Protein 1
Amino acid sequence: MIFLSLILACAAAAATGILFPPGAWYDGLRKPSFTPPRWVFPVAWTTLYLLIAWAGARLAVLPGAGLAMGLWAAQVALNTLWTPVFFGAHRTGAAMAVIALLWLVVTALVVQAFGLDIWTGVMLLPYLGWLTLASALNFSIWQNNR
Amino acid sequence: MIFLSLILACAAAAATGILFPPGAWYDGLRKPSFTPPRWVFPVAWTTLYLLIAWAGARLAVLPGAGLAMGLWAAQVALNTLWTPVFFGAHRTGAAMAVIALLWLVVTALVVQAFGLDIWTGVMLLPYLGWLTLASALNFSIWQNNR
């Protein structure tokens, strides 16, 4: 049930990708050379959301995981917020602020997770890696499409 | 720190109200007689978000609160999703599905909270009450503005 509730939280974040698709606006942006092809994003996010929900379910049953679960909740809310801001409102600067905050929250979550259970910390590293790439991409698009 | 992380999660949800304001589209909708005046919404949500974060911080330190924290995370993600779907994409039917799911998640959270700590359950009742009104409002707007 814990895993299902966290999958539902991730599904809310994932739904933004369907409700606010990249579309013609995204195709017309000046993007950096390291931009992954579009098909990579849903594949990466599906994998990451499963890992994030699994990691959260492992943390939720550990004693002293209150802060980790608070950070888990904060990351899923910021993750859900990013897509409508970027792809819905086309506010690339505001989206940059959201993803920078998200990166900090996930870094704090990874630190907490490593303190509680090493393997759960490892499970969250791909998320942090992907967010680093996504932040660089957001920054580049924001700077080059004024 | 737990309370701050949950306030941050609620701030992500609250930011949608600023980034996706009601605007002329909302003013032009056919709304039911029980629609509160516009100034009520930010006042109600500010109060509710403080109560929700406080309730979450109380739950987070209790043993056996894993499912409650999972539901807390699910509600904040669905809450963050609703505003861009309704006020951003103007998808009142999809927003109805989101708020119905949110209502169910918050009901489950209230049940969990009452089982862990009665006062925390009581603190979450205004949220459930407001969501009931908001769901009725969303349903009416969806049905009367095809």
Protein 2
Amino acid sequence: MISAGIIVEYNPFHNGHLYHLQQTRKKTNADVVIAVMSGQFLQRGEPALVSKWARTNMALKAGVDLVIELPYTFCTQKAEKFAEGAVYLLTSLQADFICFGSESGNIDTFTNTINFISNHESDYNRFIRQFMNEGVSYPKAASLAFQQLAQQLAPSRDLLDLSKPNNILGYHYVKALQEIGSKTVPMTIERIHAGYHDQQLSSAKISSATSIRKTLAENRTLDHIQSHIPDTTYQELSTFYQKFNTFAFWENFWPFLKYRFSHSEPNELKDIYEVEEGMEYRLIRFAQEATSFKDFMEMIKTKRYTCTRLQRACVHILTNTKKEKMRNKFPEYIRVLGFNQLGRQYLKEKKERISLPIISNLSQADRKAVQLDIKISQIYSFAFGNNGQKIMEEEKKQFPIIVE
Amino acid sequence: MISAGIIVEYNPFHNGHLYHLQQTRKKTNADVVIAVMSGQFLQRGEPALVSKWARTNMALKAGVDLVIELPYTFCTQKAEKFAEGAVYLLTSLQADFICFGSESGNIDTFTNTINFISNHESDYNRFIRQFMNEGVSYPKAASLAFQQLAQQLAPSRDLLDLSKPNNILGYHYVKALQEIGSKTVPMTIERIHAGYHDQQLSSAKISSATSIRKTLAENRTLDHIQSHIPDTTYQELSTFYQKFNTFAFWENFWPFLKYRFSHSEPNELKDIYEVEEGMEYRLIRFAQEATSFKDFMEMIKTKRYTCTRLQRACVHILTNTKKEKMRNKFPEYIRVLGFNQLGRQYLKEKKERISLPIISNLSQADRKAVQLDIKISQIYSFAFGNNGQKIMEEEKKQFPIIVE
């Protein structure tokens, strides 16, 4: 069986994701598509709108064959670490291809860019330090450094535009594949219609997940987004809302985050992952004044610390995740969230060649390995008030979702 | 001016408190009645129904002349420490008398009992250890030890019934007065009608605060309790409810306490005051299953740890108060919550002879001294959702309430 891996958040699964899925199959001729999907919190430091189980349902119903969880240690991370975790899982799973969407759409520009940067690494790093000394954030400095390097040394070469978010992610996917010596072959598809960060719904049927979430947060009804998502997503979102009475937004967690800042001493926060350089004092001080999470972010963001960076720190504070818990270089297990018959057959066939333990039943799993992900679900459940209990029941259901 | 001190919680101020106040004036012939009142959390490990400011209003409008805060370090404590803090403040304030309600009603039984126990201290302590080895709680063991001692050695003497809650408190007041060599003279008034722990409203107009709170929690309306409280209390409770939309019950804090248990490692709880003997493991485990605070208490209480003891531990966990913060032997400041003209005049007259700093304006106070009480108000504010902000505005208002 030919297999293609994709790296996703599906927050929520929309028409653009469907296009990506279809194109992946077409381009790779894959029999099986494996999605490595973020768990309850996401790369940009946000809670997932709906639980990983509901998102697994969306994925399977839209045609994904096998859904694997990207553990917390990797899913709420900067692009580099996020990519390393996801790519490592797909490599372990013996995926023949990885196929990702990008603004570029041309895989050669990725390898060219990686080679170019690697050939000029010391200049590149010097530029990054220079820009950071001017006070900008690391991702911004890296993008500016690359731009400067490319203009000076290779103005006419076919290199990536590394100011584009999906190009950045793709760059890290391809780089991680090289670094771990993976046999998995990278491919890319040009993204159509929507920009990753677009705030407004597009008039076409493909809109960014950001704009879909924003519309949902403002209207608290599915009406406005219906034409931008497959029916299966619509059904799943409706079912979830009926069951939980809300979607999970940062604002749902705000009272708890604020409480956390109210009861904590600065020295109790300094060991939290991504809390650095005395950031804890600033956060504690402003949390007292802020009346919403949005308000809080407006108060604390700086040129040096982007919203995304601060949101991730806030997720780790909310979940009380210490630096020492995030030291794993690579994932240590494969947690199966769901599959169809093909996906199950694939796992069965490859089982012998997969070195990581495959967890499909929590009760048989090495408890210590999955402990953090269980705790994360517990914290995630606080978005849902009294209905939170159901999140933990889901989590302990222990068996992958099967869609035939 | 003759002054009488009383030690109160006023949760809420009811007809029994009014009787105590009137009898205090009559018995001591006092010109000024000074109430030392618990802050936002109370002796038995519960949040106060309404803020300390609202309760100060109730006290002043019912005729108390001066209201002083019993700081957190003393108000959420076992009887002995609670008494020491309160008695120390009244002694510092140069109160001529302390007048407390008790089941006994006879001050000589208190001094007799103190002398009796002090004369047989080693036997008394041996009995306490014996009973504790059988697994009962410390207060229970102390009460049984005393009973046994009295039966064996002084069956016919006029000693206290130390199984009664107000006798126990009174015993500690009188003992603390002796220990600090106070010139303040203790007096006691027999409590009428209601038992301290009564759950049901009495048919008479004096009911226990416990029964009043229980009725309020069940009905969320003031109708049923109106005849058991003075009009001034009724007005104050109504105003508070209109402003905050709820009273503060433990259940309001349950999501935050549960969240605290969900995100904390056991070793992060073991330094909390009153968390002992590995209690943290038990609490974390059961908090996951419990669906309400009541449910939680039912799960965790044992013969050794009474509800009161566990509730106090939960308050300290909620407020993240470490053992090291609770080491003060005596209060270090006098925080004035409110007064009438007489109360103000009294303070003015005695000022020179009061050695503790008097805080009536937070901005002029030694910030470090009042820091804990400010933090406690911040945590208390989480009972009120978005209205919590108003609790902090009250707290920072900084000036005592003046009722003319």
Protein 3
Amino acid sequence: MRGLSLNQITTKGWTLPEAVRGCAEAGIEGIGLWRDKVAETGVARAAKLCRDAGLTVSSLCRGGFLTAATPEGRRAALADNLQAIEEAAELGTDTLVLVVGGLPEGSRDLPGARAAVADLLGELAPHAGDFGVRLAIEPLHPMFCADRAVVSTLGQALDLAEPFPASQVGVVVDSYHVWWDPQLAQQIARAGERIAAYQLCDWTLPLPADALLGRGHVGDGHIDFRALDAMVAAAGYTGWIEVEIFNQQIWDTPGAETLRTLIERHRAHVAAL
Amino acid sequence: MRGLSLNQITTKGWTLPEAVRGCAEAGIEGIGLWRDKVAETGVARAAKLCRDAGLTVSSLCRGGFLTAATPEGRRAALADNLQAIEEAAELGTDTLVLVVGGLPEGSRDLPGARAAVADLLGELAPHAGDFGVRLAIEPLHPMFCADRAVVSTLGQALDLAEPFPASQVGVVVDSYHVWWDPQLAQQIARAGERIAAYQLCDWTLPLPADALLGRGHVGDGHIDFRALDAMVAAAGYTGWIEVEIFNQQIWDTPGAETLRTLIERHRAHVAAL
């Protein structure tokens, strides 16, 4: 399955070694890793497992959470992101996904939180460049603006990325987060070489009790993946297509079965190979 | 309480006569009516009740649902909206709020649904003008894009309104739906005299099981109302400030108590009169 990468959260029940083995057995050649899973296995061992299995690490999820209102909070965020950059480099991926963080506790200062993100990006970007890693700003769906990411649109992510070389700061196009955006076609075209990661899952309804987990397999919801794929391809993106799904029912499904569904849906709705 | 209007959904348990009496007793001088409540009471009687109580009808909620994919669906939507325009005129309000509708059943064609909205607006706007009623396009939060409103941002609503005279087509600024928008300040400034209605409630977390009902009293959530109010005032808006809250707990509270809270929060967070 050229192009398809398993974002590891999709098989949340699997350890990193299990996910690596699962991909190898299914013929999936890319994997997006999560830092908590990497930490369980150890960075060096995780890197070796992927290399030995012939897997490309398409991204590391995730750095970010840059909106702290206090100097201590800022320092902690910087330290954590510097470590994430080094982990990404050691894992052999050039892409560190950033979920930028929501409003600080008790704050209603959205412009202030957004300015804090821009500030810390300025400190992180040169370090990322030194390690050959690109910071990939992920706009999250506006329903996560208060608690998870004050970057809500692709246009806003591109505005934040613009002061930096494209080799240091890019953006994530995640179907779930951006599909509704009236400016989607124009902002994807604008993004061009800034597209650092491309992630897919579907928008399904109703939203579950935990709104974070309302994502479905490609084809189960309301998103037109062929149209999105045409936009991303026209922008010049030739990288991995990660499937990243937060969904309790899918997490309760055996991983090998989930991977079979991923491949089947990839053929049917994205890239008919 | 100059400026404050009760959107009737906030006291969902009240009939229209009860809501009119409640406003009069609380000293609230504006009311936003809902068509189902108006139908229970009868349009002529509802109009008379409001007039006799000295209440201004700040808006009628709601027309819209313009995304039908079939000719029959389009005809039915047109007929219903023409009736809503006449009801608004008879109730003495110049503002008909439009919730434009989501994707047609089984469709993933978001650009198509958006084009259908533009088409039907073109048919409705002159009729609205004939009755002295303005169609107020309400951008809904992007989490309602699939099932309720394919118009998701103020900028998009203004693009849709632009071909028409401002006296025929305007927009709604509803804090809950637009607060997250990185382009908010710039689009409110652009809106100027297109702002036909201004509605308030707060963004509270976590989202409830029914995502429609996650709205809170002004001051209970994450929105900076003074900042929003300054933008809307700077755009030249001098009309009513409707409080419109969908929240089961508030609906279960006695109406008179809810109105006391509205007034208290209006003083504390919006207009300190």
Protein 4
Amino acid sequence: MKHLREELWFNVPDRRGYINITSEVEALVRQSGVQQGLCLVNAMHITASVYINDDERGLIGDYDDWLEKLAPFNASGEVYRHNRTGEDNADAHMKRQIMGREVVVAITDSKLDFGPWEQIFYAEFDGRRRKRVLVKIIGE
Amino acid sequence: MKHLREELWFNVPDRRGYINITSEVEALVRQSGVQQGLCLVNAMHITASVYINDDERGLIGDYDDWLEKLAPFNASGEVYRHNRTGEDNADAHMKRQIMGREVVVAITDSKLDFGPWEQIFYAEFDGRRRKRVLVKIIGE
Amino acid sequence: MKHLREELWFNVPDRRGYINITSEVEALVRQSGVQQGLCLVNAMHITASVYINDDERGLIGDYDDWLEKLAPFNASGEVYRHNRTGEDNADAHMKRQIMGREVVVAITDSKLDFGPWEQIFYAEFDGRRRKRVLVKIIGE
């Protein structure tokens, strides 16, 4: 069995942001030498997501509006108990559950085995600091 | 390490539909010869989901109503920016995030290692065309 | 390839509850002898979730309120068709889709490869009976 472990680091300048990380993950698949296997990509922070969807600017804006509607930002401890701890990011913990922590992607013939429009995104919901994603590849 | 890769194809006649694909996945597990391992099942399209839940007709109707409430269909580009591209499926990209892209199921003693009511579904949110699911099995 | 399969059992006394299961999963990783691999942790029941987030009491209360807002409990068959079957747990099937069925965690150097605040939770949405989680570990 071959395996590879790597971290990708980000520092999103705003509270929220969406970054296409597909080419970085593809490069790690090549580096791993794995021909057949699985590639796990997960946020290592609990106010961020890794998800797969379209790299279309309008859609990303729609996601951002929609998440804000389902789990609005509110720094107050009267709205979110979590924010009584001094945090202001309770909404980010919720947004991340909608978009998910991780994706698992098949590796076939040394490549990410993707449908026509699948792209891997890092979604930041509480940015303005360095945060990271884990890539773990196993296979042969 | 053994591995198997197969696609399952669907053409849902309506915009939305929910198809139980458990027996197709089980057949692939048998075909793989894997006794202990992992089985990844993912939508290859970004307006569809693979999820695990109950095969009960009322529940499926409830899911459909609930998803429509959380992310209503609206073809207008004034509601969803994505639809300014000429698409009308922005809602489908959101519904898919709620229900998820993929499931990973354990294989134990050559079978899907399931609880009593777990069934694998393909959920279509933008049908009326051929779309597919990837099954990737690794193990020994 | 090494592999391990174990079940964790729970009996949550209330309808809903959130249990940190990280140390139980870590013990199974040690027991497996796997140094590099993947660890799948999934609810075996379709009205419960396994998810990764913070072990902070206020946040857990916020999740509970938020899930109840997105998918309110209502035993009536007029609100949820699923409840016409004699069940009263349709809301639990929806809450579970938001929080997810499973997590896949990397194993690196014989440990769960976690960011600073990642903790694995079992979330029960229809308790007061014995239910279980599957842990499946593969690697070498």
